[in-house]
């Protein structure tokens, strides 16, 4: 007895025009990461307005509250400049890096567990490492835009002393990637419901935001808490941002350390992510 | 038909309820609370513990780091106090708010729209009001834990100077009740996860601007009135007064604000749950 | 005396009439089915019986009480198995049963042995401490049914009990439901599976667009609205329509569906022989007994599953 006889109308058929599958595979082997990143950006479209409002609202809010409100309590200059000049590069980097951290957790985990984005992509010739790189590329574009919007809004507040401060935009992008890629690598290994992200948010991102020299110089912390800054992409990014923004004095070797730390996190994160993506998808 | 069997005494009890409770309240919110505790027991205690760290981190970072830049700030009675003393009560109020909102908005949203938990509960002899009361109680319980923990921390750090500080615990519950009940009512209107993203859009500015980290006197006057209309400001001011044991005419106003907010919230939440589940 | 009595039961959502003045009665111990396609108003009817949906018009009594004003009392005597499992994902299997029992106000010393008994009934004893998320679809369904029995209900409401289950899981579940029926539990179930209705229901109503279009025992309905046998033939997407004329002359009633043609005749094999003898060469052919599917097609002109 047949039961499943669906009554869908029979279409006239599907076109088979003779695509060159070998050529398609070659192109994907080469450019799959780019294709994936375009797909990833398209997938963010429904969230555009939420993202846009946050990208505009956050800078305004933080500059008003911290730069102006809290700044009005600060007595004298900080690091030789006004509190607003001091805190603005830190706020820019900290908010962009926080967004990067968010993208590295739930969306990656959910892509494997709920949305099955990666499983869908895996049915095409795109390879797992290309997905990891494509993810990173898509997010870095997004972070660049967000950082630039912050910088523009900062202009209205008089938060930037000179044109060189525009360099905080690529610096913030770099720092957010240094946070994003290792988290992405980690998130791809999680199978269960993602309780771990509570710990990531509250024990890693949050303390970095508070302790890593965003609101006050790291030196005003007791020595036993300063290491939180040293291991944090947020602090390294913020220091670079302060150098280009108001010309914070920094020994050249330390500036090199900041850059090397950030680039090291990104490259290391991507390498591990390529492995964890592959292990998750090919088994 | 003679009524026998295990449900007979229960049916008998339900039959004796006042008629106006009708389909709304079965007098068994206790069962919902029991369920909450059973879940907490099996839950990851680390997650609960980290919720307690958040205000502590704020206090340590801002109190120490910013404190070094800021110096003394005028307290509720006009006497200068340290910056850490200034922000500690505000952080307790904020943490009561955040905890209550997390339980009554994020958790309730999930149970309402995705896990269908409440649908299951209402297939039993529970009514919507049993569910609402039970869930609000659980939100307050978590708030109570955090409030006790945080008060212990700030007392150990010497940031409270009055026995009145003990009253910060019931006041934290009152703040949590206001936010939890109103939050639950608002959540009942939410349909998608994107709407859930709006919650921080409301909470973060309220946290940053409600005299938590700096006095509202830095704003122009119209903005001050705006902030004073929001609930968190009342919670912050009330906590700050309790921490040093200084009271004035405004104290009762702050308390009254939350009492009214709670009454409105519970009424609205029950009505909405009734609409949602008794369609 | 009936345990459920509906008279002119109506439910409107705004302008849309989900349930349109239906009347029916369910006798104690009976197994009663509501049969119809998705969106026919079956689930809404079930919810009104449980008092979680308020009717727009008509009267309804369940065990002599109005579920609208006595929701908690009525539900105290009901077991509900909703269409989508609403198990408590934060609790383990056995705790699901115990906590659910507490919602009814049942005492712990009753619930502990009861939970074990129900787990055994649902063949889930080894899964007592498993997380709900670790159970298969069939296991979740059985746990949901076990949960619906925790208050020893007089009436068990089952909304699409086997939708989404594989054939083996369905048979296990049907077996459990048979046992309950033998023990005198009144079953009220909705389904859009004809074989399920034929297997489980003593009596059923066929619902379409919120109205009852037929009522009776499954076999009686088939006798009344269909022939003994049905011949199904396929000629491929292009030829089905062109064969219609020829076939129509061969028997009293035919139905042309997009993918196949159904011929209603009491002597199916003979008719198929005739089709082949005339050299019509169907791509596939099959003779089967009439089912409720055919009754539904006859009554509404549509298939049940779409």
Structure, described:
The complex is a heterotrimer of chains A (283), B (279) and C (306). Helix content of chain A is 70%, strand content 0%. With 283 residues, chain A is mainly α. Chain A has one domain (28-281). Residues 1-10 of chain A have low confidence and may be disordered. By secondary structure, chain B is mostly helical. Chain B has one domain (44-277). Chain B has twelve helices and two strands; from the N terminus they run H-H-H-E-E-H-H-H-H-H-H-H-H-H. In chain B, 72% of the residues lie in helices and 1% in strands. Chain B starts with 7 loop residues before the first helix and ends with a helix. In chain B, strand 1 and strand 2 form a beta hairpin. By secondary structure, chain C is α/β, with parallel strands linked by helices. Chain C folds into two domains: 4-217, 3-Layer(aba) Sandwich (Rossmann fold), CATH 3.40.50.300; 227-289, 2-Layer Sandwich (Alpha-Beta Plaits), CATH 3.30.70.2190. Helices cover 36% and strands 26% of the residues of chain C. Chain C contains eleven helices and 13 strands. In chain C, the strands form three sheets. Chain C has a six-stranded mixed beta sheet with strand order 5-6-7-3-8-9, sandwiched between helices. A four-stranded antiparallel beta sheet of chain C has the order 11-12-10-13, with helices on one face. In chain C, strands 2-1-4 form a three-stranded antiparallel beta sheet, covered by helices on one side. In chain C, a hairpin with a 2-residue loop joins strand 1 (4-13) and strand 2 (16-26). In chain C, helix 8 (218-225) packs across helix 11 (292-300). The longest helix of chain C is centred in the middle third of the chain and has 16 residues, at 167-182. The chains are: A mainly alpha (283), B mainly alpha (279), C alpha/beta (306). The interface between B and C is large, with 38 and 43 residues.
